[in-house]
UniProtKB/TrEMBL annotation:
Matches recorded under CDD domains: RRM2_NsCP33_like
Xref: Gene3D superfamilies: 3.30.70.330
Protein name as annotated: RNA-binding protein
Cross-referenced Pfam families: RRM_1
SUPFAM superfamilies: RNA-binding domain, RBD
Keyword Transferase (UniProt): no
Keywords: RNA-binding
Signal peptide: none
Organism classification: Bacteria, Bacillati, Bacillota, Clostridia, Eubacteriales
Statement: the UniProt record of this protein carries the keyword Cell membrane: no
UniProt source species: Symbiobacterium thermophilum
Occurrences of domain RRM (ranges): 3-81
GO MF annotation terms: RNA binding
Organism superkingdom: Bacteria
Length: 86
């Protein structure tokens, strides 16, 4: 089962490919996605990365949390399950 990572405070211009490239030096990235606004299609400034190996994911979290990316300090931590519904 992949280990899911939340990545916040992303520059608006960040693409899923950019996000994947940021995490690939730490290990295999199974999926990288940017969350977009349903109505406008624009980035909401955060995304998720799924990594195959938990140890690699934890190392990426430790090294990339507060890492300056595109002039902004990233918020990187273990993704939490969604609470409730919409």
């Amino acid at each position: 089962m992949p280990f899911s990572i939340y990545v916040g405070n992303l520059p608006w211009s960040t693409t899923p490919e950019d996000l994947r490239a940021l995490f690939e030096p730490y290990g295999e990235v199974e999926n990288a996605r940017i969350i977009t606004d349903r109505e406008t299609g624009r980035s909401r400034g955060f995304g998720f990365v799924d990594m195959a190996d938990e140890e690699a994911a934890r190392r990426a979290i430790a090294e990339l949390h507060n890492y300056e990316y595109g002039g902004r300090p990233l918020t990187v931590n273990e993704a939490q399950a969604r609470q409730g519904g919409m």
